[in-house]
Structure to design on (776 residues):
């Protein structure tokens, strides 16, 4: 992109450098082409550059664009649910400038050719930055390791079998160990599949009343405890995706205290909803892991507040109508999350659990640092990947107006505060809210 | 036979039927606000009482070999069974016919339509057929409710997964009431595969709503999570659990759960949880035996006990089933008629 843009009147927050400048007409961010040129509370004191386009942010927050470390764009294989184009537009509308897509596509990203296909599609779409995980095992469901070194060279950000757990302890131990050679992170959906098999929601009074097979919390904690033991054994780098239980948070907390290289994320449903959202068989609330109890939800919030939970990811898993308009047991798991990620993360701020910079760190600098991504911060010389948003504006989550191909949000109708105004990637505005 | 707390309009129906007049003289305002009958959980004690009273009147009508009624003349009942059933389907069929309805059976389980995938499509098809009432059974919890949201006629849940089976609970309650005179204060034991039983859940809700106490007796693997939160007492020892019980209700053990997965063997199950005279003697001397059928003789119930004409209500349960379904169809179709100008 050519030309300079001066973003004025913005409260500039960069969690990575702990910058939080109040909005002023003489301060803000100046970008030139794809990069940030300067930023600060008084950079325009000596006047604005004559050749710059002026963007008056009207007192809104300007922050690094969101980095969503867990999305599914369903391409290749399930383009009727989402594709890289529609998913990128959904991300842009959600203030997300970089995503990391899951590899359990069809075919899965378990070799360089599929990875390159995704990269090429993302280049063609040229909207948000699309990074990709590769699977840990061939097919994402075997005990044979993928070519981690070659995939890493080709750009795989980290390794995960996506929505499947690596069940075989020996396989996971080898993956953790082998990945050390390439400093690669192993990301695990921690769920013991024998214990959870057949289950469709949290096990308990509600599942008993609804007559639905349950998934006990222990499915998560058994796998986490085992995996942490394997991390201790191998010295590997391990990240637990979408931690959802109180005991799971406690496992991670203990592993961190022990000095193990263990991190984790969670997703908005696990800090903003509990099992009651299932109500009378609402399939939009059928998620994996399942929505847990109120005690678990509170523990997840506490884990976010004390830093045990490093990141928040949308866990964007689009499902078409046909996959959700079914009896609960037959419906697919998953929710469309990109376009509600920011507003739900801001709930943690409005509810007093996190400061605004702390909350933003969970969706910008923290995932970026964890995955070593060249984005997620504001500094002179870095990519101009920005989001401008009003953190207070009351709004309602309306899935029917989602840009995503799929509208399966368990937050349907929820009143929230916070609205994306503009999304910028490499200096180029890719989303601008209608005034 | 005990006839419990009759209400003014009940004798009217009975008079009507015995004199061959087919339209019962019922109050214009039906004390039943629901469009569908999806579960017992949504019913108040008064609504349950009303359904039981009306069912009882139909039971008497049927027992007196009363004439076929014409309450549902020119109306269509469709039995839509996504899961195999002979007993319940036949019962609905007979109930519809005795009310004068045209009855059609669609056995989806045997047709090329695969389960679940087409439930919304099925609803659209049924709407086009202008049915007045649907009796639906499905192997997934919540599926009947899902269907009810998409159709423009009254829906009766004929059993959805492990969720609810309201007409079964009503017929069980009617059977009990006719023998004990009331439900209030009775101690009822539900024995067997509670975890997977919609019959157990509907019975628990109904009996508790009407003031009875409920115990469940089963091996721990067949008790669902947080069972005691439903207000029942949980026992794993059959003799202890049956102590002081007025009613012993046995549940069917599904064949696929018998061998090794939930219980080690049929042999062991019968030894500890099968109802025989030895275990039965721990219940009250006048305790009565029930089973929703179909029975696995020698698995959950000893043949002699099941056939004991002094203690077993199993045959009467089937008889009451038709009466209860007549009452439910009657209420819902009249309700529907009253609602549509």
């Amino acid at each position: 992109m050519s030309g300079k843009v001066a973003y004025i009147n913005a409260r500039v927050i960069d969690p990575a450098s702990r910058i939080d400048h109040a909005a002023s007409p003489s301060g803000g961010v100046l970008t030139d082409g794809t990069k940030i040129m300067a930023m600060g509370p008084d950079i325009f004191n000596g006047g604005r550059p004559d050749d710059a386009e002026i963007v008056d942010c009207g007192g809104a927050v300007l922050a690094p664009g969101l980095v969503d470390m867990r999305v599914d764009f369903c391409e290749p294989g399930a383009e009727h649910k989402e594709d890289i184009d529609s998913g990128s537009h959904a991300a842009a509308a959600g203030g997300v400038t970089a995503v990391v897509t899951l590899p359990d596509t069809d075919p899965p990203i378990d070799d360089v050719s599929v990875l390159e296909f995704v990269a090429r599609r993302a280049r063609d779409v040229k909207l948000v930055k699309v990074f990709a995980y590769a699977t840990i095992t061939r097919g994402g469901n075997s005990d044979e390791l993928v070519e981690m070194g070659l995939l890493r060279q080709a750009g795989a950000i980290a390794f995960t079998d996506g929505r499947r757990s690596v069940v075989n302890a020996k396989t996971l131990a080898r993956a953790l160990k082998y990945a050390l050679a390439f400093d690669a992170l192993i990301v695990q959906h921690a769920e013991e599949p024998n214990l959870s098999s057949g289950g469709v929601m949290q096990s308990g009074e509600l599942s008993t009343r609804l007559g639905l097979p349950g998934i006990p919390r222990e499915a998560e904690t058994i796998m986490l405890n085992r995996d942490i033991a394997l991390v201790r054994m191998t010295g590997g780098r391990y990240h637990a995706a979408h931690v959802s239980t109180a005991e799971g948070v406690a496992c991670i907390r203990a592993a961190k205290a022990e000095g193990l290289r263990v991190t984790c994320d969670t997703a908005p449903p696990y800090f903003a909803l509990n099992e009651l959202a299932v109500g009378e068989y609402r399939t939009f609330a059928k998620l994996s892991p399942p929505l847990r109890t109120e005690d678990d939800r509170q523990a997840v919030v506490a884990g976010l507040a004390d830093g045990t939970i490093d990141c928040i990811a949308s866990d964007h898993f689009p499902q078409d109508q046909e996959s959700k308009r079914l009896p609960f047991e037959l419906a697919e798991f998953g929710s469309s999350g990109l376009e509600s990620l920011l507003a739900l993360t801001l709930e943690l701020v409005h509810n007093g659990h996190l400061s605004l910079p702390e909350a933003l760190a969970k969706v910008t600098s923290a995932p970026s640092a964890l995955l070593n991504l060249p984005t997620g911060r504001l500094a002179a010389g870095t990519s101009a990947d920005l989001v401008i948003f009003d953190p207070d504006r009351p709004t309602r989550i309306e899935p029917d107006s989602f840009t995503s191909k799929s509208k399966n949000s368990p937050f349907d109708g929820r009143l929230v505060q916070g609205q994306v105004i503009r999304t910028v990637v490499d200096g180029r505005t890719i989303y601008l809210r209608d005034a | 036979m005990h006839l419990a707390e009759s209400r003014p309009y009940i004798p009217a129906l009975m008079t009507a039927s015995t004199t061959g007049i087919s339209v019962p003289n019922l109050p214009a305002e039906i004390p039943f606000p629901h469009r569908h009958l999806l579960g017992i959980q949504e019913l108040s004690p008064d609504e349950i009482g009303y359904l039981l009273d009306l069912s009882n009147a139909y039971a008497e009508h049927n027992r007196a070999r009363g004439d076929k009624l014409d309450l549902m003349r020119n109306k269509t009942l469709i039995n839509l069974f996504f899961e195999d059933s002979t007993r319940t389907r036949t019962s609905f069929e007979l109930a519809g016919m005795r009310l004068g309805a045209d009855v059609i059976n669609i056995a989806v389980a045997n047709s090329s339509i695969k389960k679940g995938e087409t439930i919304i499509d099925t609803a659209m098809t049924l709407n086009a057929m202008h049915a007045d009432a649907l009796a639906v059974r499905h192997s997934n919890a919540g599926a009947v409710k899902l269907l009810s949201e998409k159709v423009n006629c009254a829906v009766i849940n004929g059993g959805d997964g492990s969720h609810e089976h309201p007409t079964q609970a009503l017929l069980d309650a009617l059977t009990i009431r006719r023998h004990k005179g009331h439900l209030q204060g009775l101690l009822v034991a539900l024995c067997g595969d509670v975890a997977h039983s919609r019959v157990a859940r509907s019975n628990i809700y109904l009996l508790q709503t009407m003031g009875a106490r409920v115990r469940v007796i089963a091996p721990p693997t067949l008790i669902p999570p947080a069972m005691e939160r439903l207000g029942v007492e949980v026992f794993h020892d059959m003799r202890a659990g049956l102590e002081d019980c007025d009613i012993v209700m046995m549940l069917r053990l599904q064949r696929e759960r018998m061998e090794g997965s939930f219980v080690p063997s049929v042999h062991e199950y019968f030894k500890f949880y099968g109802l025989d005279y030895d275990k039965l003697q721990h219940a009250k001397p006048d305790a009565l035996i029930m089973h929703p059928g179909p029975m696995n003789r020698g698995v959950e119930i000893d043949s002699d006990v099941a056939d004991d004409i002094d203690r077993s209500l199993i045959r009467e349960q089937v008889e009451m089933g038709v009466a209860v379904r007549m009452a439910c169809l009657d209420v819902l179709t009249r309700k529907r008629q009253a609602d549509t100008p």
